[in-house]
Amino acid sequence: MHELALSGAIVNTAVKHARGRPVSAIHLRVGVLRQVVPDTLAFYFAFVARGTLCEGATLDQERIGARLGCRGCAATWGIEIPAFRCPHCGGSEVEILTGQEFEVESIEVEEETACIA
Ligand SMILES: [Zn+2]
Fold first, then answer.
1. Which of 23, 25, 110, 112 is the most buried (most CB within 10 A)?
2. What is the SS3 assignment for 86?
3. What distance in angstroms lies between residue 92's CA and the mean position of ligand 1's atoms?
């Protein structure tokens, strides 16, 4: 249930950057290797956001596919290939390039509404 801890981190980050303005939307980048369940994250986010500037904000989750890179020949490939071995040179000295993202990319805040009374 690490989605609960992640939700707390998202709310803290957004509130910090919102500087007192209500947050209407939060754009997240989540790597597929983080094993975050989108629905579970949305559920905990709504729970944690209650009573904060993030209450009612939309959580937009962009999924980032995993890519690996070979340290030997610099080839890169998607994780769809089920082997942590370079398909280009056969080397096994590989590193994960993407797929572990978990970051708040941007937030949207509501502008002050003019009083028309
Ligand atoms: Zn290689």
1. 23
2. coil
3. 8
